[in-house]
Every structure is written in structure tokens, then in C-alpha cells.
Amino acid sequence: MLRVCKSQLTSLSLFPQDKYERVLAKVNQLKEERDELRTKVDAQRDELTKLNAKLREQERELSKTNDRFQLLQVDYQSTHKEKEKLTVELQRLQSLTCSIEEVKRENQELCRRLSQQETSPQDDVKVQYQGVTRQLQETQAKLASEKEETRKARRQAEVFQSELEDAKKQLKKVSEMCNQEKSINGKYEMQVKEMSGLMANKDILIEDNEKRVMLWTLEKNELVRENEKLRGEIEKLRVVYTSLGDLGTPAAASESMYLQHDDIGAPVRETSANQNPQRHQENIYETLDSIRPPQEEEPVLVCRHCQESFPGITENELEQHEQSHRVCPFCTMICDHMEQSVFEDHVYGHEL
After folding, report:
1. 30-205: which CATH architecture?
2. Hey, where are the domains in the chain?
3. Tens digit of pLDDT for each residue in 236-269?
4. In terms of pTM, does the model score above 0.90?
């Protein structure tokens, strides 16, 4: 019976120690996870700072491109106006060419008439002919120069048009890059917020676990004190039992019973002087049975996601409850309140 009591006391002293060690390991693991999360948050903050600097640089480049685009638009408008002027001048020259051709026809007609009219003075006709010819040559030279200027203006307008198209394409690319940078920054900011929330949750869990560790430490100390007290009582019972084995007379037996009453402090029935040692041994066993520790209670199952305790359920029911949670596979965050699309965005955000 004494061996049974010792084994039970040893199991009582070892059980809180294992539980305490598991809790300490869990607390250390949570602290390591918190440090890792802080490192990740710092790295993402640095990357976010770099992306913000890059975004500002892209915005400056976008403003420069916009300025250049506006300048090109102004140049294009001025070129277009000049082109319109040249077109008007070209039309005027074309009309002048038509008039020159008409003058040529008139000149030919005059020559034909002069050949027919012998009485008319030839000197006046020659002077008039030379003047018309000179005017025709000047008009042709002017027309050629105007055509050359028109071709140059057209080529310049085509160059400006191509530069304008290139500027539009470059502006579109810069706008797309800015939008991508903004979306990436938004995702990183969301991840930083989620990491901050996770770190806050981890801190709360660590504080709760530290409180539990303190409570379990106090319970352990109380159990150790109770264990020492029980060992002392067992030693007292052993001494009483030894003294009862040595004493053989009824008077000595009654005296040992009074000693047992004084040492243990438990109520003992009055015994007569003619009781034998076997009756005393039965009383000792009853006293030992009365100081046995209570049986261990049935363990309460706890959900590993929401930390909710469920007494009186089976392992299968607990597994069904845990599977009903919507948990992120990367950060183990409970996302029951999120919609499916928001939950998918959260999960895909870890892969970036």
C-alpha cells in the first residue's frame, strides 16, 4: 500500500513538470515566430520604402514625359498651322500656274496673230513677249521653291507625327508601370497590416501562455508542498506502523493508537483495551486510503485554431470542428469572417 501511494505521488509530481515543459516550449516557439514575423515586417518595410522611392522616380519621369508630350503637341499644332499656310500658298501657286498657262496660250495666240498681221510693229510684240517670258520664268522658279518648302514641311510634319506617337506609347507604358507599382505597394501595405495583426495576436498568445505558465508554476509549487506534506505523513504512518508491530500488549496498542491520532491529526474511533494488532493495521490502511489523491479528471479537448475548449466531446467531433474553420495555410490566420474572394486574395498575397 505504501508503494502504491509513493507511485501515485510520483506521478502527481511528474505530470505538472511535463505540462510545464510543454508550455515553456510552446512559449519559446511563439517567441521565435514573433521574431521571424518582426524580421519579415522589417524586410517588407524596407522593400516598401524602396518601392515608394521608385514610384516617386517614375512619377517624376511621368511628369517629364507629360511636359515633353505637351511640347510635342505645341510643335505639332504650329507645324499643322504652317502646313495649312503652305497649302494655301500652294493653291495660290497652282492658280498662278494656271494663269501662266493661260498667258502662254494667249502668247501663242498672239504669236499666231502676229504672224498673220504683217502690218503690226514687231518690236512691241517682242518686248511684250520677253516680259511675259520673264514673268513666266520667275513664276516657275517661285513655284519650284514653294513646292520644295511644301515637301520639307510635309517631311517635318511626318517626323513630328512619329515622335508624337512614340511619346504617346512611352506615356502609356509609364502609366502602366505606375499603376503596377501602386498595386504592388497596396499589396505590400496590406501584408504589413496583416503581419502587424498577426504579431499583435502572437503577443497576446505569448502573454496568455506566460500567465498560464505562472499559474502552472504556482500549482506545481503547491503540489510539491502537498507532496512533501504527504511524504511526511507517510513517514509518520510508517513509524506508527513499526511501533504497532513492535508492541504486543493491548495497552501498548491503545497507546499507539493515541500516538497515531496525535501525529496524523485524523479522527480515529475509540478502541477497547482488548483489540489486537490486526485491527490497528486495518485502521492504518483505512487512513492511507483516505489520503489517496483524487483521480485524474478527463482531459478537456481544445481547438488548435480558435483555442476554444470543448469538454465531453470525442476526437472525431473536435476534428470536424477544426475542419469547419477557414485557416490560411501560410500564416495560420483564422479567416472565417472573410468572403471567399477576400480569402483567396489574402492567400495569393503570400506568394508575391
Report:
1. Orthogonal Bundle (1.10)
2. 30-205, 297-352
3. 888 888 888 766 444 444 444 444 444 444 333 3
4. no
